[in-house]
Amino acid sequence: MAKAPDSTAEAEQEQEGADTAVGVRRPPAPVAPRASRGFPSAVSRTGRVSGLDGLRTLAVALVIVHHVEPDVLPGGAVAVDVFFTISGFVITRLLLAEYVRRGGISLMSFYRRRWLRLVPALLALCAVCVLLASTTSLWGFDGSLQAAGLSAVFLTNVVRAMESGPYSDLTSPLAHTWSLRVDEQFYLLWRCVLWNPEAAHRIYNGTDTRADQLLAGALVAVALARLRSDDPRLALLRTWSGRLAWPAFALLGLVAWQVPVTEDLGAWTAAWYTVGFLAVAALSAILVTALELRPEAHMSRLLALTPLAW
Q1: Alpha-carbon distance 48 to 44, whole Å?
Q2: Structural domain total, the chain
Q3: Given 22, 80, 120, 248, which is the most exposed site by the fewest CB atoms within 10 A?
Q4: Would you say residue 1 lies in a domain?
Q5: pLDDT (tens digit per residue) in 45-73
Q6: 310 lies in some domain
Q7: What predicted TM-score, i.e. pTM, was given to this entire model?
Q8: CA distances from 245 to 22, 114, 163, 168, 232 (A)
Q9: Quick check: is 259 in a domain?
Q10: Which stretches of the chain are DSSP H helices?
Q11: DSSP conformational letter for 272
């Protein structure tokens, strides 16, 4: 499962020269005049959103339960969709803030931060798997060398999408890194060039077929960055996102409980893998908007509780 960007730590790292002393109040970041016209609220929207951290933790828990006890939570993989939406929102929000502060975005600096945040831990995991495969006879580690190679070059999800079935011996035991690969390919603006529209696993694993969830979060970040604090449309968003947050949360829970992940791409599943994914992206975007605009609401406070907001 992908690691969503931390809505606190990375936002702080984005600000060069930030004072790291505890309790010191930082002065407002400088703003590039021309850039700020299009996104007047971008710089002010870079702080911690504890509710998003809690939602991320809950998504991780759903995926774990789905894999350990699939009969209990057959649709728990929907949490990956929520995770992608959070990633799209947080990354876009950070980039917009940098654009407004500096009048541009340093892509090399952005890629360096992403690399330092994700790749060292991934390479360590790959090394452990290769070591276990070469020194033990533990079940499931036979393909570690090739799986580590595919994961290290960000191709796990591409190989899974190209396979004739939903699972691939080429990616075991690092198959779970496929969603991290989707995230990284989204960051690097990679496009999936192979097309296999009749395979459910192609739709499930493809970067292009997951773009709606990432872009839903990005759209929320752009929309909120363009609205000033006194804009009546912002008040409308705050009101309606608050009203729809719990229904959206309940519907996502219903999906996790009742909608299984299946390789059988029949009429019903074809509709779910197309319109359904988009609907989940919209529901996730409602949750992200509510958590961003209504930190005082019951849901935000609940998801911000320890140990959810770790």
Answers
A1: 11
A2: 1
A3: 22
A4: no
A5: 667 788 999 999 999 899 899 988 989 99
A6: no
A7: 0.66
A8: 34, 30, 38, 37, 20
A9: yes
A10: 9-13, 33-38, 50-68, 78-102, 107-135, 144-152, 156-162, 178-187, 200-205, 211-226, 232-258, 267-271, 277-293, 298-303
A11: I
